[in-house]
Write a structure and sequence with these properties.
Order of helices and strands: HHHEEEEE
Strand content: 25-35%
Largest sheet: 5 strands, antiparallel
Helix content: 10-25%
Number of strands: 5
C-alpha cells in the first residue's frame, strides 16, 4: 500500500510483531560486528561469508543455550568446505537478538577438521 508520505513504511509495517525477515535484516545491519567477532577467533581469517539462508530460530535446551536462540552459519577465507556457526539467546521467537551476546557454537572448520 502506497500512501504517498515519508512515513508510509511506519504506517504499513507492524513493528509490534518481529518476523524472521526482520531478524535477518537486523543481523545484516550488524554484519560487520559479527564478521569482526569471527575474525577474532583466528588471526588467519581474513574474510567471512555469511549464509543468510541458514538463519534459524531454535527452540529447546542444550549445553550452551537453554530456551530459544537464533543462529547463522557461514564460511571463511572463500574456502570451499569451511564453516562455523554463531548463536544468540532470544527472549522469544519473535524478538531481536542482542548482538553483544553472540557466541560461537561451531568452531571454525574446514572439511570437518578444526582450523588452526
Amino acid at each position: 500500500m502506497k500512501l504517498g508520505t515519508p512515513f508510509d513504511h511506519f504506517l504499513t509495517h507492524d513493528y509490534t510483531r518481529v518476523t524472521k525477515q526482520d531478524q535477518i535484516d537486523y543481523l545484516k545491519k550488524n554484519e560487520q560486528k559479527m564478521t569482526d567477532y569471527i575474525k577474532k577467533q583466528n588471526s588467519k581469517v581474513t574474510s567471512v561469508q555469511w549464509d543468510w539462508e541458514s538463519v534459524e530460530v531454535h527452540r529447546g535446551g542444550g549445553p550452551i543455550v537453554e530456551g530459544i536462540s537464533i543462529g547463522i552459519s557461514g564460511g571463511f577465507n572463500e574456502i570451499k568446505g569451511s564453516n562455523f556457526a554463531l548463536q544468540w539467546p532470544l527472549k522469544n521467537e519473535k524478538s531481536y537478538p542482542k548482538i553483544s551476546d553472540m557466541f560461537i557454537v561451531q568452531p571454525l572448520r574446514i572439511g570437518g577438521e578444526l582450523y588452526e
